[in-house]
Amino acid sequence: MAKGQIFIETDRCKGCALCTFYCPVHILKLDDTQTNAKGYTPMVTFDPDKCIACGFCAIMCPDSVITVERFIKEAQK
Amino acid sequence: MPKSKIVYERSEGLSLMDNSYCPGCTHGIIHKLVAESLVELELLERTIGISSVGCSALNYDFFSCDMQQAPHGRAPAVATGIKRVRPNSIIFTYQGDGDLASIGIAEAIHAAHRSENITIVFVNNAIYGMTGGQMSPTTLLGQKTTTSPDGRTKAQGLPLRIAEMMATIPGATYVERVSVHNPQHVAKAKKALKKAFSIQKENKGFTLIEFISTCPVNWGMTPKDAVDWAVDNMIPYYPLGVFKDATVGEEK
Question: Are A28 and A13 in contact (CB under 8 A)?
Fold first, then answer.
């Protein structure tokens, strides 16, 4: 069960891949089947169920293309 | 009861325009930190940023606060003028190592010497990025650039440690060197920036935060290799930490 999810503004991504090295659960990669509006290879999540919403990818993204959303558990209500 | 919350999103201190830096350039991270610090301290409305010459010359488009462009190296001089005319504003300059450490060193030193109430964000990536990778005062010994193709030697001078030098100036209030090579250090860097802006808000004097940054394109590396190179080579020569904090004695 994912603890959160990330939203990627694919067309702003420059494909620098910095985020992929800092993801503790290794679910980010560059998708070389795509080319975005800027002409770069954008980053995608290939296993979103493992996301722990730590935000490391968003913190290290130089272009601020990642928004991180954390799910609130039922027990925390 | 909401089922989720946004824990990280693009700061409102950044404009909607995409930044024009090369992929993987840590300028983008430092921009975010400046923007987030100003938003969190609720200073964005009265902030005026001074952009310098170099890669950061275009950053007047990337921040949503007011910005002013300064001639090469003269950002602290322009900042001095604006701060004295509008003392209630928050002034930061955003300068690279070619701009501050080489051409504008006199302006930076004298702004600190006069204890001007401004914050300098100094981005040290050991190279002139925009003009094509020439040697700068902070280029490391042995580092290859377009103007030192065999590596820098002592004949071109030893790399200049700006934070240590500025800390020796009596007028400087807070001088710290930080890095943005991993999320933990990004958090520390943000804390340093917030401290610097808080000192300025309280009119306590001159603050300078030096960032260890990367230049993947002119160093000839991938973004991650550039970050690793900065950790392995730059941080041993440019140690991180607080070099001067004149506010410590006052608080006690």
Answer: no
Topology of domain A4-72 in CATH is Alpha-Beta Plaits (3.30.70)
Read off the amino acid at residue A9: E
Contact map slice: A 11-70 vs B, CB within 8 A: 12, 14-18, 21-22, 40, 53, 55-56, 58-64, 66-70
Q: How far apart are the first and last CA of chain B?
A: 44
Ranges of each domain in chain B:
27-251
The ipTM, to two decimals, is: 0.91
CATH of domain B27-251: 3.40.50.970
What's the sign of the alpha-carbon dihedral B69, B75, B78, B81? Answer: positive
Q: pLDDT by residue (tens digit) across B160-208?
A: 999 999 999 999 999 999 999 999 999 999 999 999 999 999 999 999 9
Whether residues B2 and A72 touch (CB distance < 8 A) is answered with yes
